[in-house]
Every structure is written in C-alpha cells, then in structure tokens.
Design goal:
70% of the residues lie in helices and 0% in strands. By secondary structure, it is mostly helical. It has a domain of 213 residues. Keywords: Membrane, Transmembrane, Transmembrane helix. InterPro entries: DUF4271.
C-alpha cells in the first residue's frame, strides 16, 4: 500500500510540470492613449468695465465709499476774525530773551557774606550802633568815642549801606519801570555811584561849613548821626531786599510799602535826633533847622529825582 501511494504522488507531480504556460495574457488597453490635442493657451479676458459698472451700481459699495461730513454754513465763519480763510494772518513769534534773577541773587548773596564777616570781626559794633541811634544807653558820649576809634568797622558798615542801598534803589527803578533798557549791573552801578557821590558831597560840605563857621563840634555830631542812621538803614533793609527780589503779588506789595515806611521813618527820626543833638551845642531854632533841611536835604533829593527822570527819558 505504501508503494502504491508513492507511485501515485510521483505521477501527479510529473503531470503538473508537463503543462505549458497560458498564452492568453491581458493586453494593455489601447484606448487609454495620451491626448495629443494641445491645451487652449488663450486666457479669457475679464471685462473690467462691466465689473466697474456693477460695483458702481451696487448700493453697498456706494455706502462704503461715501464720506460722512458735516455741512457747515461758511457764512458763519466768514466774519469771524479767528477763521480768516481768504487772508490768513501771519504771526511771527519774537525771539524770547530769558531774564532771570541770577545777578540779583548773587549780588544779595555777596552783601550778606560781607555783612556776616563784618559782624563776626566786630561783634559789639552793631549793638553799639543801635544803642546810640535809638538812645537806649545813657553813656552815649562814651560809646560814640569808642565807635570813632574803630574807623575800619565804620568804613565797612558804610560799604554795606552803599551796597544794600544801591540794591534797594535798583529794585525801586525796576518797580517804577525806570531804566528797563539798562541791564541790572548798570542800574546797580548807577545807584552805587549816586549814593556815594551824595554822601561824600554831604560829608565834605558839612566839614567845610563847620570849619568856616567855627562850629566843627556841631557838624561832627551831625555827620556822625547821619552816617549812623545810614548804617542802621543798611542793616534793616537787607530782609526787605530779599523779599522784594523773590516775591510777588500781595506779599510783594506789603513788603514794598513797609520798606518805604521804614526808610521814611528812619529819615524823620534822624532829623529829630540831629536837631536835638545840635541844639545842645549851638543856639538854633526849629525854623532855621527846617530851612537847612529844605536847602541841603530835600532840595538835592528833588533835584536828583528830576535829573534821573530826564536821564532815563533821554536814554530811552
């Protein structure tokens, strides 16, 4: 049986290898050939005129392109000076010149430094000045002799008066709009020179009259009182100079008024003190003293005031 199965299996294998291959193969489809017709290279032109006409006829497009603006009656602005469309005004801005207060600040600072140095060098001299001027001490003659023995302190306090007085005069010029075309330093120089000439001339004149009339003691006392009053005024006016230089408005007006009242009161008190002191040495009545004041005190001030106004008017 075993041999029979082997024979059958061998026979079936040989029969399979003896068959030929199938000649009926699937041929390629000849219908699926490449298209030899060329593509149409002519592009279809778009009619832009038609599109433009369609867009213009579109109401939504018109609404999008519409600019909203407010119709204003131009006759409203035709007579308005701020809307001159026909003849516009040409505005040319002027060159701005900065006018600070640096010069005034440094001038005041210099005077304060000088005053502080002199006060430290001669600590009792200022107290003696106030005591003898306001008659708070009974030893006035002794104090006056001590003050005359310190000429350097007297000279320095006279210098403080000249500097402070020239600053105050400069502020007066600026307050009354006099000499606005002059710079600060020139006004200060004019004030300093004016005060120096006035009191130097007064000193020389009184010395000459005292020598001529043989009343040197009376004139020396009068000169001492005049220059003592100047020293007191030079010290008292310093706070007012600082206030007038750097304040404005109501405070400035108040300081300006008080400073003028103080200076005027010092001069009036100086006249009274001079009359009382001189009257003890020579026989002089109040009428003669008033004539002297009008001739040698008030008249020169009025003359100087007139000359200053004429000078500023001519310079302008």
């Amino acid at each position: 049986m075993k041999y029979i199965l082997i024979v059958i299996f061998s026979f079936s294998i040989s029969f399979g290898f003896g068959q030929s291959t199938d000649s009926l193969r699937v041929k390629a489809d000849s219908v699926l050939t490449a298209d030899t017709v060329k593509k149409d290279t002519v592009a279809v032109k778009i009619d832009s005129a038609a599109i433009r006409a369609a867009m213009l006829s579109d109401s939504l497009y018109k609404l999008a392109q519409h600019r909203f603006y407010r119709l204003v009656d131009t006759t409203v602005y035709s007579h308005n000076p701020f809307f001159s469309f026909k003849n516009p005004e040409k505005q040319i801005s002027e060159k701005k010149i900065w006018r600070g207060k640096e010069a005034l600040f440094y001038s005041i600072l210099l005077v304060l430094i000088i005053f502080a140095l002199v006060k430290n060098m001669f600590p009792r001299y200022l107290d003696d000045i106030f005591r003898i001027f306001f008659r708070t001490s009974m030893k006035q003659r002794q104090i006056r002799e001590q003050m005359m023995n310190t000429p350097l302190a007297s000279l320095l306090y006279n210098l403080i008066f000249l500097l402070a007085g020239s600053l105050f005069v400069t502020l007066l010029f600026q307050h009354y709009r006099l000499g606005t075309y002059f710079n600060f330093w020139l006004l200060l120089l004019y004030g300093l020179a004016g005060l120096a000439i006035i009191y130097a001339g007064k000193f020389i004149t009184l010395k000459i009259f005292g020598w001529m009339l043989n009343i040197s003691d009376a004139t020396d006392i009068y000169i001492f009182i005049v220059f003592t009053a100047n020293k007191v005024a030079g010290v008292l006016i310093l706070p007012f100079i600082i206030g007038l230089a750097f304040t404005d408005g109501i405070l400035y007006t108040a300081l300006f008024t008080v400073s003028l009242i103080m200076v005027g009161s010092l001069f009036l008190y100086r006249f009274y003190l001079s009359f009382v002191s001189v009257h003890k040495l020579i026989q002089i009545n109040i009428f003669h003293f008033l004539i002297y004041l009008c001739a040698f005190e008030i008249a020169p001030l009025l003359l100087i005031n007139k000359l200053l106004l004429a000078f500023f008017a001519e310079s302008h």
